[in-house]
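Hello Y.,

Per our agreement to keep a running log of every chain we model this quarter, I'm adding this entry. I've kept the format consistent with earlier entries: sequence first, then predicted structure.
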Amino acid sequence: MKHADSQSSDRQSPVSFVANVARLPQKGLPVLIEADAAQRAALAGEHELLSVENYRAELLVAPWKRNGVKVSGRVEADITQACIVTLDPIEAHIDEAVDALFLPEQSKLGRQGFEGGGEIMLDAEGPDSPETFSGNSIDVGALAEQFFGLAIDPYPRTQGVSMEAADDAGTAESEFQQKLRSLLGKS
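Predicted structure for the entry above:
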């Protein structure tokens, strides 16, 4: 049984880094996250990767407008995935820009979203609409991990391998599935 106080229903990111945003310096707070072996193993498990060879997030947590927070920077990683056709390991490099805005939950804009106050013009190239945060801290490590997760190719393939080449593998798999079905007594 899990202790209620150990962590809430939100899973904690293996690269969690909570930044205190109550008194940010005007030029921003630089944050560097370099994952150690245990954190890289946890990231690999979380994102169904064979391995994560290195993971580094360089972020700047800066004040935005009156009481918002802007997090910008990059997340870079070297990962190894399994090809979805051959299951061969495929190495990939991730280099993803991190760009996000946060508003306090209790702020007027945070409550209304943007329908109510048309005072914020969002740049189409810029960050998505702001997320809200409560209290004085934001887990910028978890944010960087989200950008890392989005940058992972969901269908990695060994170069030159097409899905047609998978027909042999596909038939073997379907034979296996047929056997499994007959064992389970389902037709």
